[in-house]
Amino acid sequence: MKIFTSLLAVLFVVACKQKTVINNEQSEVAKGDIVNTIINNEDNFYHIDFKNYPINDKTLPIGVFDSGTGGLTVLKAIVNYDQNNNGLLTNGSDGQLDFDNETFIYLGDQANMPYGNYSEVAKIDLLKEHIIKDAQFLLGNKYYTNEADQEVNKDKKPVKALVIACNTATAYGKEYIEEFLKKANTDLKVIGVIDAGVRGTLNGIDKSEDAIIGVLATAGTVSSKGYHNTILQLKDEMGYTGNIEVYSQGGVGIAEAVDEDPDYFNKNLKAPRKDYKGPGLDGNLKIDKTLFDIYNFDFDSNKMLCDSKNVDDCSMLQINDAENYVRYHLVTLMEKIRKSGTNNKLKSLILGCTHYPYMTEEIGKILHELYNYKLKNGDYLYRTFMVEDIKLIDPAVYTAKELYAHLKEQSLFNPEGNMKKSEFYISVANRDNKTNVIDQTGRFPYDYKYGRNAGEIQEYVKIVPFSRDNISDDILTRFQKQIPYVYQLMQNFNQTSSKVKELKEESKI
Q: What's the topology of domain 23-86+98-192+397-508?
C-alpha cells in the first residue's frame, strides 16, 4: 500500500509539472548585467518574479550552495545540529535534530569550479555572475531532469533563506547577493561561512593570549583577504588584546583533487601531463627539492607523477593525490611562519574551504608529523612555531548556529516539514548550448572555463539532480563514510528523482 501511495504521489508531481521546451541549439547570448536580467527581463531564462516572491513562508526550504560538493560538509553540520530544545527554543540539546522539520535544497556548481582560481585570471566579474546564478537557481523554480533533457521543469520550490557554503563565494559574493536582493526588494537572509568561522576561532583563544591563526583556503579566498581582514576586525570588536597574527596559505589542488578535477587529479595517469595546474618544480607554486624529506610525499600508486624512475632525476614532478596536496601546502605554511622571525605559535588552523573537512584526519596527522620533525642535529624544526595540538576550525558548525538564530528570531521554523524530503542538485556543462566548449570528459576545458567573460548571459550549465551519472563512485563512497546522514538524504532524493525520470520517459512513448 505504501509503495502504491508513493507512486501515486510521484505521478501527481509529474502530472503537475510545468515544462518549457528549450531550443535544441541554445546558442543565443544576451548581453547585459545578470542582476538586472534576473529582475527586469521577463523573457529571459533567469528571470524571477520578485513581486510575487513568497517571503516569510515558513514551509519553504532553505537553500545551500557551494562551488562543488565541499559544501555538503556545511550541510552535514546543519542537519546534524542539536544544541537546542526544539519545543522551548532554548539552549541545550534535547536529542532531536534542531532542523529536523526543515527541508534543504543543495546546489553544487561543479561545472564552474574551482571558484578559487577566478581571481588569479582577473575574472572576478565572471565569478560573481556564477554566484548570482547559484542564488537565482535556489530562488527560482527551474531544473532539468538530466543533462540530456531539453525540457526544463518549473516545479522547484523557492527558498526562505540562503546559506553560502563556500568560502570563496562568501568572500567575493555575499555582499553582491545582498545588493541583488535589495534591488529586487526581497528581504531574504544570506549567511556566509567566513564570519561564523572567525567567531568560532576567536572563542577558542583567551582575550589576552598571543597566538598565530592559520588559514588554509583556496587561492581566491586568500587573495580576497576575507579571513585575514575579518579576524583583525572582529578581534578588536570582541576586545582581544593579545598579539594575534594571521598566516594564510592558498591550498591550490586540495579541493580540486577531492572533487576529482582532471586538471589537478587523475587516478588513471602514470606519467606527468601538459595540462597540469598544480605545484611543480617550476613556477609560482614550486615544490622545493630541498624539502622532500619534510614533505614526505606518498609516491605509491602514481600519487606523485615523475618523468623519471629516480625521483632525484625528475625534471617534471606533479602531485596526483589529495593528501599529497595537503602535505605540500602545510609544509609551505610552516615554512612561511618559520622564516618570518615571529616569536608566536600556530594554535588554530581555519579550514577555509568547505572541501577541507573531508581531509581533517590527514591534516591532523601531517601537523603532528611536522611538530615531531627533527633535523639531523636532533633539533625540532617547527616546535618553536606551533603547539602540539593545533585546533582545526571547521566554520560549518558556527554557520549552523547562525542559521538557527535567524530562524528563531524571525519565527521561520517550519512547524511540520521533513528533512528527508531535501533535494540535491549539481551543475553540468550544457551540451545544447552550441557556444560552449566541452571536452571528452563532458567538462569545460580550463582555458575555456576561465576564458569566458561576464555579461554574456547564457545557459553555460544545466542544473540536474545528483546521480551516478555526474558523481563518481569514489566520491559517493567518501560521502557514505564521512557524511552518512547527508548521504542518506541524497539517496532518498535520488530514488524519488529516478522515479520521476522513468515516468517522464514513459509519458513520451
A: Rossmann fold (3.40.50)
